[in-house]
Specification:
mainly alpha; about 260 residues; about 80% helix
Length: about 260
């Protein structure tokens, strides 16, 4: 496939992605909502700071005010739903038939879709990560408790926050390709990416801890999303957590490719 031909596919997939009404809502309003939530949370902490006990001040984490577990949940659900709708929408409208008539090589279509969704959601995740950090730390600096990019662990946390979006989106595409039903795909995305992992906790069973360490939301919550990582055999390592972040979108991309190539439209 020539570079020019693939660029044409990328342009076509870009147009189709932004023609979905859900894209503008999820990306635009989702970004504003998460940044606004960070600002409100930081303002509450700023106003309440004089009344904090010594222990509360010692335990305070400025990064939690910027990007909390709720923010991560909203980002993953939104991005995962967008990824699922990107492919489910084409099957629902029948547009996939037109696409595959124009481009019979299905793997090229899938590659273009994956690339566009990955780029859009990575940019969105990066914007949200930077925006929430900048807004919250600007507010908290008034109390002298803000952190900077040079502080230990901060860049890792910001990178992990940003990568939640493409990880969820590509996973959503894989789920959408498998189910081909809007409601079922969105519900499965929410359950697999956020709802079920929310209940995961370190256990005394190493095999179970190792299983949990394969789940992106869990490793973000107990490892990558923390500026200071705890050394505990029951908890995932930083390297293992990054591997989990890579495993899910790669597996989902493979599933999407296999399903689209082998199933009838």
């Amino acid at each position: 496939m020539s570079a020019g031909r693939f660029r044409d596919l990328l342009v076509a997939e870009w147009i189709k992605l932004w023609s979905l009404r859900s894209t503008a809502w999820l990306v635009g309003l989702g970004t504003l909502a998460i940044v606004a939530f960070a600002a409100q949370s930081s303002l509450n902490a700023y106003q309440s700071w004089p009344g904090f006990t010594a222990m509360e001040k010692a335990m305070f984490s400025p990064l939690d005010e910027a990007f909390s577990g709720l923010s991560a949940s909203l980002l993953m659900i939104g991005a995962g739903s967008l990824g699922a709708l990107t492919i489910v929408g084409e099957y629902a409208t029948g547009l996939i038939r037109t696409t595959l008539v124009a481009v019979p090589a299905r793997h090229r279509v899938v590659a273009a879709k994956l690339t566009v969704v990955a780029v859009v959601t990575l940019a969105t995740g990066a914007l949200i990560s930077a925006g929430t950090f900048g807004v919250s730390q600007a507010i908290l600096s008034g109390r002298g408790v803000a952190v900077s990019l040079g502080d230990p662990g901060v860049l890792r946390v910001l990178a992990a926050n940003a990568l939640l979006a493409p990880v969820a989106a590509l996973t959503g595409m894989g789920i959408g390709a498998l189910l081909r039903h809007t409601a079922a795909a969105v519900v499965t995305v929410c359950a697999a990416l956020v709802i079920v992992p929310t209940f995961f906790r370190p256990t005394v069973h190493q095999w179970l801890d190792d299983l949990y360490a394969l789940v992106p939301f869990y490793v973000w919550r107990v490892c990558l999303g923390l500026p200071q990582v705890r050394e505990d055999p029951a908890l995932p390592t930083v390297a293992g957590s990054w591997a989990a972040f890579a495993l899910w979108p790669l597996a989902a991309a493979a599933v999407t490719l296999i399903v689209v190539r082998r199933r009838d439209v």
